[in-house]
Write a structure and sequence with these properties.
single chain, alpha/beta, 2-enoyl-CoA Hydratase, Chain A, domain 1, Rossmann fold, N-(1-d-carboxylethyl)-l-norvaline Dehydrogenase, domain 2, eight-stranded mixed β-sheet
Length: about 700
C-alpha cells in the first residue's frame, strides 16, 4: 500500500504521509517519501513541496519492529539528503508528534510550520543512542547549540509554540497545511532555498561557550552514559567540522552506540516501561473513576510527600493528622521543601503558593469524607492500618478508592477491615515521595478492574512510573531488597568490611552502597521491622543495640564527624564485625569486588525468579523498571533481570549453588524457573507474559 499520497494545490505538491497508526518511518515509508520528493522535484509544473501527514502524528519516529535488524534501503539519511538537496523549497506541515526521525525529516526541510499543540523532540537519548540522521547537526544550526543540546540530552519534546520561540519552526498555525502552502509559495518566489545544513548564523562564540558549560555539567552528571558523551561529541562537531563531516561522525557514533551493551540496556528499559503499562486482564480503554480531589492520612515525611504529588499535579488534597500539632508540623515541612525549591530556582514563588493552596490541613478522618481517593500513609503496623480503614469505610463516599502506602503488609487483610474490598488496593510510593518516580500499584485479588486502571492513570498524572504488582510480603522491590540486605550481612560475617561492600555497588553504578544507605535512612528502621517479624541479623542488630542508628546519631556502619554526610571507616565497628565472625566460628577471608557483587546481586535475581513464578510480577521487565525507578539501579545496566541475562543464567545458577552449599542456606538454592531457563539456554527476556 502506498504510504505517501501526492496532491497538487496550484504549483505546490502536497505529499501526505499515511502509515497508521503513528506514521512510523518503516522501510516502505522511507522509499515512498524519497520517491515522491524526487518525482515532485523533477516535475516542471511544481514550484515547491509541502510534506504533511494524515492522522494525529506527523512522524512519531522509527519503526520499532526494525530495531536490531539489518538496515533496509533507503536508510533515513538518504531520504533526508533527497529532501534537503531538493532544488525546490520543501516545507514541513507538522500537525502532531514529530519525534526522533520524524523531527529529523522536518529539520531536513527548508522551513517548518507547526500546530500550537504539536510535539517536536529527539528522544533517542532514552533509547541509549543519539540522533543518527542529522539531528545533532541540523538542530544546533537552527536554534543554536546551547538550546539544542539540552533538548536532545533530556529527550523531552517541546510544543509548537515553544518550537517557534526557539526558532525550530518558522510559523505556528491551526491549519498547518494551508500555512505551509502559503510559506512554500513565498519561498519559491525567492528562488533557491536555504538548506539547514548551510545555516551557521547561530553558531557564535557565545553559543559555543554556553554549550561547553552545559557539556561540562552533563559530563559530571552522566559521564558513565555512553550516549550522553556521544551527544556531547556530536554537538561539539558543529563548531569544529563541516556539515558533511559532522554528519559522518554522527552516523559513526550512532552505529557504535547501537552495538554498545550499555545502550542495549537502555533500549531494554525504554521498551520495558512501555510494556509495564499493559495490565493483563484489563482491557485498554477501561472506564476510570473520576479523581477530582484526594485525601492523605498521615502528615509525616511520606504523607507530606504524597500530598505534594497531588498538589504538584493540580489535584486538591486534604492532609490529615490526629492532632493539630502533628498537622502543623507536617504542613511546615511541606512548605519548607517548596521554599527550598524556590531558593534553588526550580520553582517560582507563584507556583509555590499555588501548590500550597491546594493542600488543606485537617485534624480527624472525617475530613476525608468528600475525597475521590484516600491514600493512607500511617505507621507501618497492621493494627493501625486496619483501624484507619475501618473508620474510613464509614466516612468516605461510595465509589471512592482507598489505597494504602504500605511497603510490606498484606493488602487483603487491610481491605477486610472495610465492607468495600473491591475499592481497596496498594499504592506504594517511594521516599522521598515528591521526588522518586516509581509507584508500585498492588493489585490484590478481588479489587475492581476500574480501580486498578484509575490508579495507573492517576500515577501518570502525578508524574510517576506505575508498575502493577501482585500482593505478597514486600511486593517486588522490597522483597528483593531484603535478599540483598541479607547477602550484605553474610558478606560482613564472612570477611568483607562495610566500605568494601559499598564500593562494589557504587563501582557497579549505584549512587550508594547498602550500608551507607542504611545509615542515611536510619538503621533503627530495619531493626524495628526485623523485630516485628521475629527476624535477626547479628551485625545489624549489634550496631543498633549500641545506639548507632546512622547519620542522625553520628555513628552507624560509619562515623559521621560533626554531622558530616559522608561517613568514615569506624575501627570499632570493624572490630565488632570481626568479633561476631569469631563467635559464629567463621574464619574470615577477603573478597574481590567481583565476588562481592555476585553475592549481592545473584540472590536478588533468584528472588526475582520466584516473584515471576508466583505471578507477583507480570514480566521480568516490570522488575527491572521497579529497580531502576525505585532503587537507583543504574539505567545503563538495564535492571537486575536484564543484567542476569547478560551474565548468563547458567552462571547465576552455578554461583547460587556454590553459595547455598557454603552457607547451608536453602534460600540460596536456585529457583525452579531460574534452573529451567538456564537448562534450556534461555533468558528471562524470552518469558511469555503471565495472564491475570
Amino acid at each position: 500500500m502506498q504510504t505517501v499520497q501526492t496532491a497538487k494545490r496550484g504549483a505546490i505538491a502536497i505529499l501526505t504521509i499515511d502509515n497508521p497508526p503513528v506514521n512510523a518511518l518503516a522501510a516502505s515509508l522511507r522509499a515512498d517519501l524519497k520517491a515522491a520528493v524526487e518525482s515532485a522535484a523533477s516535475d516542471a509544473g511544481i514550484d515547491a513541496i509541502v510534506i504533511a501527514a494524515a492522522g494525529r502524528a506527523f512522524i512519531a519516529g522509527a519503526d520499532i519492529s526494525e530495531f536490531g535488524k539489518p538496515p533496509v534501503a533507503p536508510i533515513l539519511p538518504d531520504v533526508l539528503d533527497a529532501i534537503e538537496g531538493c532544488a525546490k523549497p520543501v516545507v514541513a506541515a507538522i500537525q502532531g508528534a514529530a519525534l526522533g526521525g520524524g523531527l529529523e525529516v522536518a529539520l531536513a526541510c527548508h522551513a517548518r510550520v507547526a500546530a500550537p499543540a504539536a510535539k517536536l523532540g529527539l528522544p533517542e537519548i532514552k533509547l541509549g543512542i543519539i540522533p543518527g540522521a542529522g539531528g545533532t547537526q541540523r538542530l544546533p544550526r537552527l536554534v543554536g547549540a546551547a538550546k539544542a543540546f539540552p533538548m536532545m540530552l533530556s529527550g523531552e519534546p517541546v510544543s509548537g509554540e515553544k518550537a517557534l520561540a526557539l526558532g525550530l519552526v518558522d510559523e505556528v498555525s491551526d491549519d498547518v497545511v494551508a500555512a505551509a502552502v502559503a510559506l512554500a509559495q513565498r519561498l519559491a518566489a525567492k528562488g533557491a532555498p536555504r538548506r539547514t545544513g548551510e545555516q551557521e548564523d547561530r553558531l557564535t562564540p557565545e553559543d559555543r561557550a554556553a554549550f561547553e558549560a552545559l557539556a561540562l555539567d552533563a559530563t559530571k552528571k552522566s559521564g558513565d552514559m555512553p550516549n550522553a558523551m556521544a551527544l556531547v561529541e556530536a554537538v561539539r562537531n558543529v563548531f569544529t567540522r563541516s556539515f558533511a563531516e559532522g554528519l559522518a561522525a554522527e552516523r559513526a557514533l550512532f552505529l557504535k552506540l547501537v552495538a554498545d551493551e550499555r545502550s542495549k540496556a537502555l533500549r531494554h528499559v525504554f521498551f520495558a516501561e512501555r510494556e509495564a503499562a499493559k495490565i493483563p486482564g484489563i482491557a485498554p480503554g477501561t472506564a476510570e473513576r473520576p479523581i477530582a480531589s484526594a485525601a492523605v492520612i498521615g502528615a509525616g515525611t511520606m504523607g507530606g510527600g504524597i500530598a505534594m504529588c497531588f498538589a504538584n499535579a493540580g489535584i486538591p488534597v486534604t492532609l490529615i493528622e490526629q492532632q493539630q500539632a502533628q498537622i502543623d508540623n507536617g504542613i511546615n515541612r511541606v512548605a519548607a521543601i517548596y521554599e527550598m525549591s524556590v531558593t534553588r530556582g526550580s520553582l517560582t514563588p507563584e507556583n509555590r503558593d499555588r501548590r500550597l493552596a491546594l493542600i488543606t490541613p485537617a485534624v480527624g478522618l472525617q475530613a476525608a469524607a468528600g475525597a475521590d481517593i484516600v491514600v493512607e500513609a500511617a505507621f507501618e503496623e497492621m493494627g493501625v492500618k486496619q483501624e484507619i480503614f475501618s473508620a474510613l469505610d464509614a466516612i468516605v463516599k461510595p465509589g471512592a478508592i482507598l489505597a494504602s502506602n504500605t511497603s510490606y503488609l498484606d493488602i487483603p487483610t487491610i481491605a477486610a477491615a472495610t465492607n468495600r474490598p473491591q475499592d481497596v488496593l496498594g499504592m506504594h510510593f517511594f521516599s522521598p515521595a515528591n521526588v522518586m518516580k516509581l509507584l508500585e500499584i498492588v493489585r490484590p485479588t478481588g479489587v475492581a478492574d476500574d480501580v486498578v486502571a484509575t490508579a495507573v492513570s492517576l500515577a501518570r498524572k502525578l508524574g510517576k512510573v506505575p508498575v502493577v504488582v501482585g500482593n505478597g510480603f514486600g511486593f517486588v522491590g522490597n522483597r528483593m531488597l531484603e535478599q540483598r540486605t541479607r547477602a550484605a550481612e553474610r558478606l560482613l560475617i564472612a570477611g568483607a568490611l562495610p566500605h568494601e561492600v559499598d564500593a562494589a555497588l557504587t563501582g557497579f553504578g549505584f549512587k550508594m552502597g547498602p550500608f551507607a544507605m542504611s545509615d542515611l535512612a536510619g538503621n533503627d528502621i530495619g531493626w524495628r521491622t526485623r523485630k516485628s517479624r521475629g527476624k535477626t541479623a547479628a551485625v545489624a542488630d549489634a550496631i543498633c543495640e549500641a545506639g548507632w542508628f546512622g547519620q542522625k546519631t553520628g555513628r552507624g556502619y560509619y562515623i559521621y564527624p560533626e554531622g558530616a554526610r559522608a561517613g568514615e571507616r569506624d575501627p570499632e565497628v570493624e572490630a565488632l564485625i570481626a568479633c561476631i565472625s569469631k563467635e559464629q566460628g567463621v574464619t574470615r577471608r577477603s573478597f574481590t569486588q567481583a565476588e562481592i557483587l555476585a553475592r549481592l546481586l545473584d540472590p536478588m535475581v533468584n528472588e526475582g525468579a520466584r516473584i515471576l513464578e508466583e505471578g507477583i510480577a507480570t514480566r521480568p521487565g516490570d522488575i527491572d523498571i521497579i529497580w531502576l525507578n525505585g532503587y537507583n539501579w543504574p539505567a545503563w545496566r538495564g535492571g537486575p533481570m536484564h543484567w542476569a541475562d547478560s551474565v548468563g543464567l547458567d552462571v547465576i545458577v552455578r554461583r547460587l549453588e556454590e553459595q547455598a552449599a557454603e552457607s547451608s542456606d536453602t534460600a540460596l538454592e536456585p529457583a525452579a524457573l531460574l534452573r529451567r531457563l538456564a537448562a534450556e539456554g534461555k533468558t528471562f527476556s524470552e518469558l511469555k507474559v503471565r495472564a491475570a
